[in-house]
Amino acid sequence: MEQIPFGLTLKNTLKAHIKFHNILNDITKIIKSIHSVEDMKNDPELLLLICNLIENMMKNNKSKLDKKELALSIHDNIFTNTDNEREDIKRKIQFFYDNGKIKKKNWYKLVFIYTANLIKRWVIN
User: Fold this and answer.
1) Positive/negative CA dihedral, 24, 39, 81, 83
2) DSSP, residue by residue, 5-61
3) How many other CB atoms are there within 10 angstroms of residue 18's CB atom?
4) How far is Cα 49 from Cα 11, in angstroms, rounded to an integer?
5) Residue 11 pLDDT > 90
6) Phi/psi of residue 36, each to 5°?
7) N or C, which terminus of the chain has less Cβ within 10 Å?
8) Are the C-beta atoms of 69 and 23 separated by less than 8 Å?
9) Is the pLDDT assigned to residue 2 strictly greater than 70?
């Protein structure tokens, strides 16, 4: 979040707007760090990754952010999409949500995976 002067708090739509754009920027950086991401414009696995990142980055959705619109905005940030491509992306996102493809990881599983990877690195080195 940008630097807000001490004592001032953000509420309601302004807080939701900033949260939306912070998540958008964070996930865009993650996706752009993937090697040759430019070639994956129509890859449904990349779109599924974006949706899973959104689901797991939003601890609670008190602001009632539209996750589907956020996923579409992230895809638009990375690639240039025509109106037909945007409609196709919306259908794919809806398919992922309807068929349970987007899963939220439990915190204890994430801690276990992190710890296991840390131990593996210690053993290898």
Assistant:
1) negative
2) PTT----HHHHHHHHHHHHHHHHHHHHHTSTTGGGGTT-HHHHHHHHHHHHHH-S--
3) 15
4) 30
5) no
6) 55, 40
7) C
8) no
9) no
Reduced to 3 states, what is the DSSP secondary structure of residue 42?
coil
- Name the one residue in this structure whose structure tokens are 């939003």: 58
What confidence category does residue 87 fall into, taking pLDDT thresholds of 50, 70 and 90? very high
| Cβ within 8 Å of residue 108, ≥6 positions away | none
Both tokens of 37, joined, read 């991401």
Nearest to 94 by CA among 45, 37, 48: 48
Are 93 and 72 a contacting pair, CB within 8 Å?
yes
CA neighbor of 72 nearest in space, from 50, 100, 57, 52: 50
Each domain of the chain, given as residue ranges in start order, spans 12-124
Integer angstrom CA distances of residue 19 from 4, 15, 54, 67, 120? 14, 6, 12, 12, 35
Residue 71 burial (CB count, 10 A): 27
Between 21 and 16, name the one with better pLDDT.
21
> Looking at per-residue confidence, does 91 or 113 come out higher?
91
Residues counted in the chain: 125
